[in-house]
Design a protein that fits this description.
It contains 7 helices and 6 strands; from the N terminus they run H-H-H-E-H-E-H-E-H-E-H-E-E. It has 217 residues and is of the alpha/beta class.
Length: 217
Amino acid sequence: MDRNEYLVAIRALIGVYKNQQDMAYFDGHLPRFNAQLDMFDEFLAKESIKSVIDFGTDIPYTSFYFALTQNAQVNLGCVHTPGEAQLADNVFRSYVNLNFPNWKNRGNSDLVICTECLEHLPTNLYKVRAALCETVKDGGFLLLSFPLNGMNAKDYGLDLGHIDHNAGHEHIREFTEQTAREFYAGTGFSLVCERITWTNAYGGNIMNVLLKKDVFA
């Protein structure tokens, strides 16, 4: 399956489950999604990616690539039914605070994707980081994205539960290049690739980072 065929398949998926607004979102953020697909082609095409968990989005914009090319099982950490106005941060908080300690997929995923998510989360981001890292199997991969507008690029250890996250899909906190690198350096994973992409729909740069969980004897 080539890139054009994949994009056609994703647009068909959006058309079935979502609406024209989501299609516009996908097209507007296509530079970012293409950057992720480029990273997959360059670094993961020869890897055995059979188990993928995609947090932070209700449509598998890029994770579905592995279902179509490697017959991988793709699980969405945030599943929204059509027409449901539920924010990713609320759903993700339930995973971090409730599901992760006894979660059957803990440490079993070849690839964990967390994009369009960290900037929305009111929960302690260091707790989120730890949970994501624990979900990746030894030798597996973690993909993170960081909006780089630098608004409130600090206090990632705080739980901002007082934020009214029903007011909309606001970015509670964003990163700078420095704080993004500090954040992913704290995973202890090896850096495979870092790519910064301008996205017109977002109005700023977004950093995509692919990390690998090292295997130690």
